[in-house]
Description:
The protein is of the alpha/beta class.
Amino acid sequence: HTYKEFTQKVLPRVKRLGYNCIQLMAVMEHSYYGSFGYHVTNFFAIANRSGETVDLKELIDTAHGLGIYVLLDIVHSHASSNAFDGLGDIDGTEYQYFHEGARGRHELWDSKLFDYSKWEVIRFLLSNIAWYLNEYKFDGFRFDGITSMLYHHHGLGVGFSGGYHEYFSMGTDLDAVVYLMLANYITHKLCPGAITIAEDVSGMPSLGRSVQDGGVGFDYRLAMAVPDKWIKLLKETKDEDWDLDDLAHTLTNRRWDEKCVGYAESHDQALVGDKTISMWLFDKEIYYNMSCHQHETPIVHRGMALHKMIRLITLALSGEAYLTFMGNEFGHPEWIDFPRQGNNFSYHYARRQWDLPERDDLRYKFLDRFDEAMIHLEEKYQFMISKYKYISRKHHEDKVLAFEKGDLLFVFNFHATKSFEHYRIGTDSPHEHQIVLDTDDEYFGGHNRVKPAHSNKFPIIKDRWDNRNNYIQIYIPARSALVFRPLKD
Length: 489
């Protein structure tokens, strides 16, 4: 999309679905289309292939009018090695902005690495932050490639187990850490309501604590282990062998009082060469059996059910914010690929097919409806930001996982074939419960197996169960999830 097309066609969709923030990628000028915007050649210019400066400003102003924050995916971890149109060799040397020799090159990314010990580098990058905040009115940044900045080894070939010696050692690039502290300080000083997000896979302690508290200053870190877990499960593990203990641990494993952005998948899975969750689930049937007029095959049945359940449990447990990559909310059937030599410079896959969920004859509409309902459920009850969370059940044989988050009670049955009647679910609430979301609802492409109970009031049995003071008894179909609210008044 151009900036204008995005303003006209995509922003209304974002608003309808209930999202209150967008992250714009590939905005900083980059010569190589196939780099996804990460080989920046001009830090103070926007990608002209997407439109004019005034068009981007109109996009941001329109988003603000809709109550939507706009974050820039900012790339300060490296720069294009281009000598003709980038910073590389700009003065005839390789070290004006970068480290000299091998330390100044990222071999995997084929790019140049900044020397954060130089005053002019700090001034250049901080001025870049101020430029986007003041000139374009961005509301903050997602800082790309933080792990590469934090360590001299750039995280390559290194596994992080959580030991402090892995984070605070001679392998830590202190100049980069100080720069990130300055970047967060300046961002929040210039724009007090700004949001900053760190893309870090290492789990660096204090990354999400304020500079005043001695931290690096980010508001959120990306929960990067979560999408890796989902892809690993779908790729390597049979449904009946899913380890719910391990899944729950991955979804909740984060440092105390540091906020995370949870997500089931991102652009990393949507790029050519990888596969999205929907493509893992539906495989080739995503092209041939998504019509509502066709019989629902076992593969499509499984895919529809798990796609909804995966997103819901990720939203509920993995962070204080939630991210989806454009189109994945309705199970977009294709990857993204940019014009490059390997595809004969084709634009065919440089797109998202927004018409798919709008077609009444395709099942994509059901996944889209569910995403909207899920996001609006969070908007109403705000369970993501609640510190109250208790996982009461992780039953390996039944494949049932249940937990309280905020004021709501979530129940997931991942079993492929077993449905359970009069199933006990523990809760600390002393009030009757009512269903507020059902993944098996026909409106979401389900089979209405729980529909008759949607208006029911589930009585509380005041007896301890699963270490909770009370329990309710429910019917939970195979491959479905239910969300309950206590009827406090």
